[in-house]
């Protein structure tokens, strides 16, 4: 049997400045409606983790979760990050995409809410201005290049300062049973797992992708990149078409470290076009 070797993770996003991340505070769960014996699925889950090379390797490398390897794989293939960038990581918790947490500001809030998105944009424009005034650590050439990009941005009516927007958001699994099981009540596991109902996961992911894309359209500078998790289904083609309107190149990616039985995949959208924005009325 062929084995898959996880990437080493010397510094995840190490060269980038992760200035902002967002995470969603989960609503309290309701009381159980059905009673199921969870002991067998508990041990199945533990066995799967034990067999899972990426989960084991994440532990060895001190990463918060196996999800880290997905981003490392995508960066190795598409070269997403460069030193000194502003990277926004939406739905960051538990945080393996933002390790190490240097320079990270975290926000809690439901990103589907326009008010939360507006607060994030405001935060970014304030920190962007502060960076500009301070001059930053950019070389002369980088400063000149950025200045010319900014004048293009202003011509296009954007105040865009972000280099990369990442969205690994997925609607968390709402627990309705299994409250006596430590494995199932653990918030970490609910955060990292979906409902398992393909249509529901797909529909939820299309809403989150639409919110993330609108945010990318509002904040990404021309030339910037967008990575977005989605659950495959009937509507993802429409999302891809919207992405193609905003970015020069768009790829579908199923990283090796993403479980093969999961419908999870990623859109990698490279080089945001100047002077183009997504139309919020045209949501997926
Ligand atoms: C699979 S986890 C992300 C894992 C993360 N990339 C990591 O490496 O640790 C999915 C995340 O999406 C977040 N999320 C789900 N719905 C959200 C929403 N409406 N607004 C903001 N975040 C949301 C969850 O809270 C969770 O943090």
TrEMBL record:
Residues forming the catalytic site: 229 (proton acceptor)
GO terms for MF: rRNA (uridine-2'-O-)-methyltransferase activity
Q: Which UniProt keywords apply?
A: Methyltransferase, rRNA processing, S-adenosyl-L-methionine, Transferase
Q: Which residues form the Ribosomal RNA methyltransferase FtsJ domain?
A: 64-99, 102-272
Q: Which domain of life is it from?
A: Eukaryota
Q: Does the keyword ATP-binding apply?
A: no
| Any single Gene Ontology cellular-component annotation | mitochondrion
Matching entries from Pfam families are given as: FtsJ
Q: Which family does it belong to?
A: Belongs to the class I-like SAM-binding methyltransferase superfamily. RNA methyltransferase RlmE family.
Name of the protein: rRNA methyltransferase 2, mitochondrial
């Amino acid at each position: 049997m062929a084995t898959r070797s996880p990437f080493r993770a010397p510094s995840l996003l190490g060269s980038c400045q992760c200035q902002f991340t967002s995470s969603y505070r989960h609503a309290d769960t309701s009381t159980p409606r059905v009673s199921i014996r969870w002991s067998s699925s508990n041990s199945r889950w533990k066995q799967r983790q034990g067999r899972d090379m990426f989960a084991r390797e994440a532990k060895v490398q001190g990463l918060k979760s196996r999800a880290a390897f997905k981003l490392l794989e995508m960066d190795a293939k598409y070269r997403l990050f460069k030193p000194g960038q502003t990277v926004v990581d939406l739905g960051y918790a538990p945080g393996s995409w933002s390790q190490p947490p240097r320079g990270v500001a975290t926000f809690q809030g439901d990103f589907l809410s326009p008010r939360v998105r507006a607060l994030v944009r405001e935060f970014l424009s304030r920190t962007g201005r502060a960076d500009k005034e301070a001059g930053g650590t950019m070389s002369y050439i980088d400063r000149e290049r950025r200045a010319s990009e900014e004048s293009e941005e202003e011509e296009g009516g954007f105040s865009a300062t972000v280099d990369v927007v990442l969205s690994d958001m997925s609607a968390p699994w709402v627990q309705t049973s299994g409250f006596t099981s430590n494995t199932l009540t653990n918030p970490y596991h609910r955060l990292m797992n979906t409902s398992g109902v393909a249509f529901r996961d797909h529909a939820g992911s299309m809403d989150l992708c639409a919110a993330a894309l609108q945010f990318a359209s509002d904040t990404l500078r021309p030339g910037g990149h967008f990575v977005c998790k989605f659950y495959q289904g009937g509507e993802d083609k429409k999302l891809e078409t919207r992405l193609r309107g905003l970015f020069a190149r768009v790829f579908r990616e199923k990283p090796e470290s993403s479980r093969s039985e999961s419908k999870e995949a990623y859109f990698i959208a490279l080089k945001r076009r100047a002077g183009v924005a997504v139309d919020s009325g045209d949501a997926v």
